[in-house]
């Protein structure tokens, strides 16, 4: 049954993954003690329809890592298992499936060091990933630190018999030493593969007794910084005496989508057929949303989550799968002590009881109180500086009030001398906001001093000051801050400025055109004590997260439709301006950039407080942000420093990867499976969209013609489409980065800023509509719109997936400096290539 299931999966053309653990006790050179390691992660990814395999092992100590580079055959058995099959020949899994044991002996010449490798392949786990356990024991010759290893193409003959497969070969490898010299070495490989054959398996009887495995494009590298060893190779299985046939299906040069199978025809003819669960013409395959096609596919009390090529059912809260693994039945719960009032928390005026399932609950003090939740005491918030200097702070239960002293008026946070002469409000009471005359009494801001200094002496006439003819006069908002867009009244030119009024390079536009400027001031500060910036947990499912001034809001998705009635704020940070948002699907974290006091922060969407990972002083104007959920890194653009940086998710190991030829970098996105980075630069003089590897190498321009203000970027890993929204050309466009097949999806859009994708839909924020707009990229039509209750500018937007995207795409033209990194999260183990 397992072999049948695997063959059906293998024939579908879908990429395959393999995960496992590596244990070892290995001596290096003449060292008297071995390097020992246990439970190191091994991850492999195979592009079935062209025979390429990638393997990586994590946490390999630097004392051992360089010396393991010659052992590309650690992954060669995986290459043999999934090798591209020539007509009449079969790879390993087509013959024996996924349960077998491989024993290999390696002898290094001329020193006769010997290493034993044992690998136990244990079939498929619950995630449809193959599982392997690897053990290493013996001695290897030393490869000096900083050296690299090159392995040329080679062939290996496999002998097939009942329950046993054997092979042997002698190979050379070249060690390139740090001083530039090279050393050619030799090692011999002997291996046996044992398995339990099935007497009723007719296909096994047709297996030829000898087959030749041809391996080329071998790539090996040890990454000392991350302690990772990586191997990659292309594999073909065929005749011992013949040359491989030239049909593209057998050479791997067919161009079919990764989620498609290549069907050979006569001569060089072939067709591409999308795998089950995908639609398309074969060269491009689109995921079928089974959840949308059949809303009841998972049954009652279940949630359907679409997955690439398939779907997954999850029971709603309060339900669990029955013994059949499909039906959701109600979980019998004990009495909710919070609801019944049988808890031991402090009174509701001081504490909150939160039910956590089973018979458990948590007591927590309300804002303004301190304690363990069972006993909460009031916090005296009247600290120095809490209220205005001409106000008195009065502590109250769980809060505080500010009241201006006699002879002053205001709200206590701002107090003005004299008697209030404000205008009447709708309630009949006088407004506590100062009038224009009263605002003049406060200290002037930098912008106001700048403006008044240029205007000269205030005229005595009723029209006030008269600026000199042809002079630029800065515009200040009602709080005295620089307006984000400044214009010259005589020439008609406009440009963006930072919080200090300095022009941002590359933003100046001509008469009749307006740049897309971001308000760095944060707007008018709120009146009254700040609320705690806690995160309101999100319900299960996939959501859109978008920034709106100092708020991050969410809209749940049902299929591709926005559940607008269920939209709400996830996080509120008064006086802040959040620009970019990104989501880490592994740890369920939302990350954002903020420009009023420049910083990058994160918070868990399942509840908790925000944590700053990079604070002010190290940033100028962070805008776009992107997460590599596989490599566990984040990338961001800084539009003042004009560079792109990368760091670990906690802000450590920070470094600049792009620092030249950038003027106004904004959006940035990652393609973790392929190891690519994309960003846009809306430089008025030369807007462009660029790409590079994730270390900043192999930088190149993808698009530079017919661009205006490319603000938003998104990459859909399933379709391999890069899409962007342009506020200058008012177009939404897409392309496959490797094909440069640029096409227009929609035109006539108004003023887009951020953009994200999910399945067939693209969602973007629009500054003129103050809305999130949904576009069906297949139909090239607008399908929906969501306008938050608060009508202000919307900034970045991202998709918060219910589960991490699992599609991993092909790497074309693997170079020596290409890195692929391995990480493990939860029960899912994924290979990262970059």
UniProtKB/TrEMBL annotation:
Domain EGF-like residues, every copy: 245-286, 287-329, 334-377, 378-416
Cysteine pairings via disulfide bonds: 487-494
Recorded coiled-coil stretches: none
Protein origin, superkingdom: Eukaryota
GO CC term, one of those recorded: plasma membrane
Cross-referenced InterPro entries: 6-blade_b-propeller_TolB-like, cEGF, Cueball_EGF_LRP_Nidogen, EGF, EGF-like_Ca-bd_dom, EGF-type_Asp/Asn_hydroxyl_site, EGF_Ca-bd_CS, G2_nidogen/fibulin_G2F
Pfam families with a match to the protein in the record: cEGF, EGF_3, EGF_CA, G2F, Ldl_recept_b, Thyroglobulin_1
Keyword Cell membrane found: no
A GO BP annotation: epithelial cell differentiation
SMART domains: EGF (SM00181), EGF_CA (SM00179), G2F (SM00682), LY (SM00135), TY (SM00211)
Protein's cellular compartments: Secreted, Extracellular space, Extracellular matrix
PANTHER family with a match to the protein in the record: NIDOGEN-1, VITELLOGENIN RECEPTOR-LIKE PROTEIN-RELATED-RELATED
UniProt protein name: Nidogen 1
Provenance organism: Scophthalmus maximus (Turbot)
Gene: NID1
């Amino acid at each position: 049954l397992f072999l049948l299931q695997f063959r059906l999966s293998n024939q579908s053309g879908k990429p395959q993954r393999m995960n496992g653990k590596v244990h070892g006790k290995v001596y290096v050179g003449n060292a008297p003690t071995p390097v020992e390691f246990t439970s190191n992660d091994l991850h492999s990814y195979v592009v079935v329809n062209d025979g390429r395999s990638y393997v990586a092992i994590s946490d390999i100590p630097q004392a051992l890592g360089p010396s393991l580079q010659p052992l590309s055959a650690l992954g060669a058995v995986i290459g043999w298992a999934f090798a591209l099959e020539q007509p009449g020949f079969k790879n390993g899994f087509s013959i024996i499936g996924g349960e077998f044991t491989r024993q290999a002996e390696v002898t290094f010449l001329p020193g006769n060091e010997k290493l034993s490798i044992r690998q136990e392949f244990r079939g498929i786990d619950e995630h449809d990933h193959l599982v392997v356990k690897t053990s290493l024991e013996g001695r290897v010759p030393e490869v000096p630190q900083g050296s690299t290893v090159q392995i040329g193409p080679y062939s290996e003959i496999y002998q097939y018999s009942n329950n046993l497969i054997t092979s042997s070969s002698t190979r050379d490898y070249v060690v390139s030493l740090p001083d530039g010299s090279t050393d050619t070495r030799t090692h011999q490989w002997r291996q046996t593969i044992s398995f339990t054959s099935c007497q009723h398996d007719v296909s096994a009887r047709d297996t030829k007794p000898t087959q030749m495995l041809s391996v080329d494009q071998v790539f090996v590298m040890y990454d000392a910084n991350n302690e990772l060893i990586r191997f990659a190779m292309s594999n073909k299985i065929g005749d011992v005496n013949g040359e491989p046939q030239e049909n593209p299906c057998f050479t791997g040069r067919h161009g079919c989508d990764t989620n498609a199978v290549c069907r050979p025809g006569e001569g060089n003819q072939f067709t591409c057929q999308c795998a089950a669960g995908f639609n398309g013409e074969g060269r491009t395959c689109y995921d079928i949303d089974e959840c949308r096609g059949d809303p009841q596919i998972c049954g009652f009390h279940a949630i359907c989550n679409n997955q690439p090529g398939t779907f997954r059912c999850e029971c709603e809260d309060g339900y669990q799968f029955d013994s059949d693994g499909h039906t959701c039945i109600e979980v019998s719960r004990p009495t909710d002590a919070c609801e019944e009032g049988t808890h031991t928390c402090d009174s509701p005026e001081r504490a909150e009881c939160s039910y956590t399932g089973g018979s458990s609950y948590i007591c927590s003090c309300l804002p303004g109180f301190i304690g363990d939740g069972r006993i909460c005491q009031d916090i005296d918030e009247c600290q120095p500086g809490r209220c205005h200097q001409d106000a008195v702070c009065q502590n109250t239960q769980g809060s505080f009030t500010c009241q201006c002293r006699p002879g002053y008026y205001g709200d206590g946070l701002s107090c003005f001398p004299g008697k209030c002469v404000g205008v009447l409000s709708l309630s009949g009471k006088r407004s506590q906001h100062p009038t224009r005359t009263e605002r003049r009494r406060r200290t002037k801001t930098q912008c106001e001093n700048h403006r008044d200094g240029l205007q000269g002496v205030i005229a005595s006439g009723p029209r006030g000051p008269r600026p000199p003819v042809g002079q630029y006069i800065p515009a200040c908002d009602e709080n005295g801050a620089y307006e984000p867009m400044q214009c010259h009244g005589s020439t008609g030119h406009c440009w963006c400025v930072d919080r200090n009024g300095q022009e941002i390079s590359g933003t100046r536009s001509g008469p009749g055109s307006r740049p897309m400027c971001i308000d760095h001031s944060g707007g008018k500060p709120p009146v009254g004590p700040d609320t705690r910036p806690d995160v309101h947990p999100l319900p299960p499912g996939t959501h859109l997260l978008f920034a709106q001034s100092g708020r991050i809001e969410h809209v749940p998705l049902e299929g591709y439709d926005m559940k607008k009635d269920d939209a709400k704020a996830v996080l509120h940070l008064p006086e802040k301006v959040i620009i970019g948002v990104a989501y880490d699907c592994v740890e369920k974290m939302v990350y954002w950039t903020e420009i009023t006091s420049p910083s990058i922060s994160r918070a868990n969407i399942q509840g908790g407080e925000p944590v700053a990972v990079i604070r002010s002083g190290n940033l100028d104007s962070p805008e776009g942000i992107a997460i590599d959920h596989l490599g566990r890194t984040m990338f961001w653009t800084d539009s003042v420093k004009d560079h792109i940086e990368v760091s670990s998710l906690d802000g450590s190991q920070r470094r600049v990867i792009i620092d030249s030829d950038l003027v106004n970098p904004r959006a940035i996105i990652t393609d973790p499976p392929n190891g690519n980075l994309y960003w846009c630069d809306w430089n008025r003089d030369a807007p462009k969209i660029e790409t590079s590897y994730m270390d900043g190498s192999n930088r190149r321009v993808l698009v530079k013609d017919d661009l205006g203000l490319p603000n938003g970027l998104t990459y859909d890993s399933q379709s391999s489409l890069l899409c962007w929204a342009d506020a200058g050309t008012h177009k939404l466009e897409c392309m496959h980065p490797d094909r440069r097949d640029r096409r227009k999806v929609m035109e006539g859009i108004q003023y887009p800023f951020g953009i994200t994708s999910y399945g067939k839909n693209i969602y973007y924020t629009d500054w003129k509509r103050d809305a999130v707009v949904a576009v069906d990229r297949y139909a090239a039509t607008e399908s929906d719109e969501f306008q938050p209750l608060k009508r202000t500018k919307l900034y970045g937007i991202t998709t918060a997936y219910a589960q991490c995207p699992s599609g991993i795409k092909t790497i074309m033209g693997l170079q020596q400096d290409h890195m692929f990194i391995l990480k493990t999260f939860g029960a899912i183990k994924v290979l990262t290539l970059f």
